[in-house]
Amino acid sequence: MEEINPMELLRSKLSRVRIPEPTNRIYKQECCISFDSPRSEGGLFVDMNTFLAFGKDHVGWNYEKTGNPVYLHIKQTKKLVSEDRPLKKPTLLAIGIDGGFDNNEPEYEETHNIVILPSYATLPFPSVELPEKVRLAVDAILMAEGAERKEQVAAWTADKKQISAYAMDLRQIGDVVVPPSGWKCAKCDKRDNLWLNLTDGMILCGRRNWDGTGGNDHAVEHYKETGYPLAVKLGTITSDLEAADVFSYPEDDSVIDPLLAQHLAYFGIDFSSLQKTEMTTAERELDQNTNFDWDRIQESGQDMEPIFGPGYTGLVNLGNSCYMAATMQVVFSTQSFCRRYYMNQSLKLAFETAPADPTVDLNMQLTKLAHGLLSGKYSLPASEKDGTATPRVKDAKQEGIPPRMFKAVIAASHPEFSTMRQQDALEFFLHFLDQVEHSNAVNPELDPSRSFKFGVEERILCSSGKVAYNKRLDYILSLNIPLHEATNKQELEAFNKIKAENMLEGKDVSSDEIVRPRVPLEACLANFAAPEEIPDFYSSALKAKTTAVKTAGLTSFPDYLVLHMRKFVMEAGWVPKKLDVYIDVPDIIDISHMHSKGLQPGEELLPEAAPEGEAESSHPVANEAIVSQLASMGFNQLHCQKAAINTSNAGVEEAMNWLLSHMDDPDIDAPISHGAKGAETSIDQSAVDTLVSFGFQEEVARMALKTSGGDIERATDWIFNNPNLCAASAMGMMNTSSNSTPTPVDAGLPDGGGRYRLFGIVSHIGTSTQCGHYVAHILKDGRWVIFNDDKVGASINPPKDMGYLYFFERINS
Fold first, then answer.
1. Alpha-carbon Rg of the chain, whole angstroms?
2. Residue 671: closest CA among 705, 650, 645, 649
3. Which of 193, 612, 678, 766 is the most buried (most CB within 10 A)?
4. pLDDT tens digit string along 108-130?
5. 530 Cβ neighbours under 8 A, 6+ residues apart
């Protein structure tokens, strides 16, 4: 057969070539099926019709699926650079831009070719012989900013400072004259990190950093006492006043004070004679991030051995994405997720069943992430990937894989996770499992999130002697930390005495002297199951408020039990505080005693509704104390009342949790209804038809709409959360009498014994879940391994007592 000329072949395929428009998303930095890039061995192939990118092992799959034959091949090869190239000192808190971190990144040379499938005929680019349409398309692709970079910019840059709203009318008082040097905090012995309050001239130390460095918070405490808004950091004032570090406490940010020279002169400061001796806030933040090393974060700088191979692949930090990295490393260490997205689903199968754009398909991106983490393909020493000499094992590093596309998909339904800000690992974990459950709704038997799900039963004993049982499903067991159960009370008392004496003398307590409470995990579990009084509980038996007693237990034991330690609590004035506490966690726990018993012989249930004619007096009433506390936090009064009523006035925390999870309910602003509970709800047939078009049975659709008040979105959620109820006859379910036995809410969930083995820890460093750093420790192949973003190594001293989330695997007898 005569071989076709590549140029003629290209001309015959021009109808399949598109010139990208400004609105088109162009992928040219990463394969949408794997983590191959232009730097990979085979380079990257960009489909010149869809502008999706594919690695060399996957471009053929795209041709089979779409028939698109023309591709732009991009290959990057490392340039040889002199070893003594000087490193540039960063001046901006940023990565990958001028003035940011250098990171000693190697430089690459990029080549381009036009490749035509299935024969892989190749034409060089640039070339004047190429058709104009092809030249224009390639130029547009190369000039466009990649969709990967648009969606997830790997940089974090401090915001441009704004002029303070308090600067122009700042009131200055007193007759303080500030000397040009020799400063000291007025409340302790600190001589660095000092701030001059621009209202009264007080010199006080700055905030304490998350790692224990910094000041003693005296400057910010002074603001809280006086309300004086602006302070300037001593040591940053020079003749260049714009470089001075001025902080606004009410605006909670570094700001510009246009009248700084005038404000300084009030205290006798001649700024022209001062020399810079202190870092600004941005520079200190920059310095802390420069030194944000492996040994600073965990395990006290132990020299840990890097680990490579299947299951030991790091995740590149995309900019405050450690909460996601730590969580996903633990998730993909479970058999359920490993089987679903790696062992039982190939990349090709996921791609063939994905929509036209696989970058927006959660199933595809989870499969891509699973294969990236578990295959070992990308878990190689960086030098080995480059083809250069392999360094000593202790010095070897891996590049890790960047989960950009996965983050974009999982964040699509949660705007906070699409930002570059730090997030709560617990909140992300729950959102992730919710999305996985939805994506597996058609085949719930394949849903790996079910391995985390369990039932919780609350028993409420009324003073009438009658009981009520409430059931719900959950993915995590959230535990309060009873500090009064600490096992080292004598050491704590001695430490607090020394600490109080030092504070009177203005001295700090060294980190070596600090004693933290040690609370056994067993005490936290016992606290969850312990009886709890509910004041002002409305009893439908007594038709009045009374005090009830609530106990809780689990109706099923999941394959994987996740314990959330409530280290973040509210202090007086609703100020969030992180408990500085150690939790003594054993390797094996037994929670068999926490299994709920259900309705017992001889127990009588509280009546569900009051007799007619007494309905008005039997309406549940919101506890005013709960409502007022929630309202003081800024919540709507009506919303607060609904939260209290829907949680049976169980407490502020329960009401707030209900409120936060129902803020988007379509009827949240509707008046509290006192209509008959059994009143028939009219069901819109169009809503039924919509749910039927989703693949649900009509009877199930009607039942879900009736339960959710006709709202389609809530009805869909109800179906997903009640798959076993939906399997029954809907009409039969709606007409079930109170004497019949309903389908258990936890029917079909995994269940087994109550003995569990600890296999994963997500620990947090920082003052709140919205800042700091997350790290995962996972028990793999009989040893503990630390996953710190793209760093993976053998753990020497896993922080079992410092966890935020603990992951346990059930031990099957």
1. 31
2. 645
3. 193
4. 899 999 999 999 999 999 999 99
5. 551
484-527: pLDDT as tens digits: 999 998 988 888 888 888 778 777 766 667 888 999 999 999 99
Which residues, in sequence order, are CB contacts of 252 under 8 Å at separation 6+?
Answer: none
Cβ partners under 8 Å of residue 350, min gap 6? 33, 358, 363, 364, 367, 368
CB 454 within 8 A of CB 473: yes
**How long is the chain?**
813
Task: For residue 726, say whether it is annotated as part of any ligand binding site.
Answer: no
Instruction: Concatenate the DSSP letters of all residues of 608-632 into one string.
Output: SSPPTT-HHHHS----HHHHHHHHH
End-to-end CA gap in the chain = 66
Question: In the annotation, is 726 catalytic?
Answer: no
Q: What residues contact 33, with CB distance under 8 A and at least 6 apart?
A: 54, 55, 58, 61, 347, 350, 351, 358, 364, 368
Residue in 32, 322, 462, 640 annotated catalytic: 322
- Strands, E assignment, 487-635: 518-520, 532-539, 544-554, 560-565, 568-571, 575-578, 582-584, 588-590
- Other CB atoms within 10 Å distance of the CB of residue 147: 23
Asked whether residue 188 is marked as a ligand-binding residue, the answer is: yes
Q: Assign 642 to helix, strand or coil.
A: helix
Output the pTM of the full model: 0.69
Round to whole Å and give the CA distance between 507 and 663: 47
Active-site option among 431, 564, 773, 777 = 773
Write out the E strands in 2-103.
44-47, 53-55, 70-78
Residue 771, annotated ligand binder?
no
